[in-house]
Amino acid sequence: MPLRTLSLDVVGADHPNRRPGKQGKIPRRYEIQLCEPGEPISLELEPDNPVDPNAVRVMSARGIQIGYIRHERSMLISGYIRDCLDIRGIFQRVMPWGAIIRITTDGSEPELPPAPAPSAQPLESRAFVDEDPGFYPDPEWPE
């Protein structure tokens, strides 16, 4: 029985798009920055991928590749696609390595999960505040 709802990592954002046409000219990271949470995405099999025959590319609502499903999940998701499950997906959020998407496998519309608590966000996304910057001005000396 397939999992009904999944959040999946999208990786490979730093690699160039190789497909001809407008797709090859738009960097993946740029396209990821254009994606809005809740915007539809699509998944496509790439059986001729030299690294992973189960590769699943992730396409934005504008038809531009933003990356791939992480290898650890690509076999599962490619199997769902080959089994003709009604997979629907949305963009969830930008991450330092690429993005996260949300999919359903039963034809229902995916919904965004609640936003993570600030303390649960990855370190890369937290602003660093130096409480003691180590900078102390010289005392003013009389002339």
From TrEMBL:
<dbReference type="InterPro" id="IPR014905">
    <property type="entry name" value="HIRAN"/>
</dbReference>
<feature type="domain" description="HIRAN">
    <location>
        <begin position="32"/>
        <end position="81"/>
    </location>
</feature>
<keyword id="KW-0378">Hydrolase</keyword>
<dbReference type="GO" id="GO:0016818">
    <property type="term" value="F:hydrolase activity, acting on acid anhydrides, in phosphorus-containing anhydrides"/>
</dbReference>
<dbReference type="GO" id="GO:0003676">
    <property type="term" value="F:nucleic acid binding"/>
</dbReference>
<dbReference type="GO" id="GO:0008270">
    <property type="term" value="F:zinc ion binding"/>
</dbReference>
<feature type="region of interest" description="Disordered">
    <location>
        <begin position="106"/>
        <end position="143"/>
    </location>
</feature>
<keyword id="KW-0479">Metal-binding</keyword>
<dbReference type="Pfam" id="PF08797">
    <property type="entry name" value="HIRAN"/>
</dbReference>
<protein>
    <recommendedName>
        <fullName>HIRAN domain-containing protein</fullName>
    </recommendedName>
</protein>
